[in-house]
Amino acid sequence: LKGNPPPVHARPTFNDDPPDTKEDSD
């Protein structure tokens, strides 16, 4: 993962949120 995810989501859910992970992994 690239440090911290964008402030789009309140909670830092990497593998918890499939849609969220899609953005992060990409």
Description:
With 26 residues, this protein is mostly helical. The protein has one domain. Helices cover 31% and strands 0% of the residues. It is extended, with a radius of gyration of 8 Å.
SS elements, strand count: 0
Helix/strand order, N-terminal first = H
Main sheet characteristics: none
The helix/strand class is mainly alpha
Domain count, please report it: 1
Mean pLDDT rating = 60
The DSSP helix count reads 1
Strand content: under 5%
Morphology call:
extended
Question: Uncertain runs with pLDDT below 50, 5 residues or more?
Answer: none
Distance between the termini: 10 Å
User: Over the alpha carbons, how many angstroms does the gyration radius reach?
Assistant: 8 Å
Helix content: 25-40%
Summarize the structure.
The chain is mostly helical.
What topology emerges from the helices and strands here?
Layout: H1 18-25
What descriptive keywords fit this protein?
about 25 residues, mainly alpha, about 30% helix
